[in-house]
Design brief:
The chain is built from one helix and no strands. By secondary structure, the protein is mostly helical.
């Protein structure tokens, strides 16, 4: 075979090989980008979940304090009712 024919065959064969290699590499990059985006989303959701847990804890503490204050007020009202009727 002539050198020109060999070069033509090689250049014809390299085009699909290069395309396949590019496709494989770009697919892996897309997959990695997708995984990175998912990880960022998970991290954001974990942070938001922690904020909500902290808020719930604070609200529960406030609710307990309000219930204790309400119980104290009920006792005071009962005491005032007893002294009024006497």
């Amino acid at each position: 075979m002539e050198a020109v024919t060999i070069i033509q065959i090689i250049s014809i064969a390299l085009s699909p090989i290069t395309g396949i290699a590019t496709w494989i590499v770009s697919r892996r990059v897309r997959d990695n980008n997708t995984l990175n985006d998912l990880q960022k989303t998970i991290d954001m959701l974990v942070d938001k979940n922690n904020e909500l847990i902290n808020e719930i804890t604070e609200l529960r503490q406030e609710n307990a304090e309000l219930k204790a204050g309400q119980a104290e007020l009920k006792l005071q009202i009962e005491s005032l009712k007893k002294t009024k009727h006497q």
